[in-house]
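**User:**
My hope is that you can spare some time for a protein that puzzles me. This is the protein in question:
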Amino acid sequence: MKKLESSLKNMLLVLTGITVLSVAILAYFNELTKEPIAQANMKILNDALMSVVPGFDNNPVADSDTIYKMKGEVKTVDFIIYPAKKDGEWVGTAVQSVSLGFGGDMTVLVGFDSEGKIYDYSLLSHAETPGLGSKADVWFKKGEPGDIIGQNPGDKPLSVDKDGGEVNSITASTITTRAFLNAVNAAYKAYLTGEVEGVSGATESAIDSEITATENKE
């Protein structure tokens, strides 16, 4: 019996040691890769910003604003607004917006010019089906089947053709198309409240009130 107890004790000690060592190794490599990953993500964001708004000479990341929303008692990021300026003059805004697609969250950076027209966009991340929903990264670009460049969602919210709208759906990926357009329409609301009217950190209800007021003026 003593031999059995001794063996069990040794096994537990060995397992504990392996666990502690594994945690230490993972923590070390996490710390080692954290900075390079952050730098890579920042490069992706900066490259995307340069492509989705007119030429700027400020630092949109440093000048950015975040709009939050509450999920129960947890505060989460709803939109991130990046103002673009040239020689001190505002020339446009990029808005990071998230929508639920077919495979999961879809994060889109939508750029608007000073008139509220879509200048360009960049699909930052998604979990859509390769070869189908993943086409959203180019499908809505200038000259492509679902071209939305130059349109102003304030004139009429963008919607897919299968819902009576004017935007051609990605082949066999209507859900992805809806999700993408939802992200763009939501980004436009944030663009209105966050930059044009100069209101920062607005609540979701305030954004909805702003877009409703704009529609009533037209």
